[in-house]
Amino acid sequence: AQCELHSLPGNIECQGVVFPKLINTDILKSPEIVDCRKDDVFVASYPKSGTTWAIEIVSLLMNGGDVDANRAVAQAVRNPAVEARIPRLFQLMMYMFTILAMLIPRCFHLHKYILALPWATIRAINGTKQMERIPSPRVLKTHLPFKFFPTQAMEKRNKCSQDSDDSHIHSTMLQNVQIAIILLPLSLRNHDGKYPHGIMTLNFGFGDWFDHVLGWWAHKDEDNILFIKYEDMKKDIRSVLRDISKFLEVDVSEEVLSRIVEYSTFEKMRDNQSVKIIPDFTENSQTLKFIRKGVVGDWKNHFTVAQNEHFDAVYAHRMKGTGLEFEW
Ligand code: A3P
Question: Which of 45, 52, 75, 237 to mutate to test the pocket of ligand 1 (most atoms within 8 A of CB)?
Answer without folding.
Answer: 52
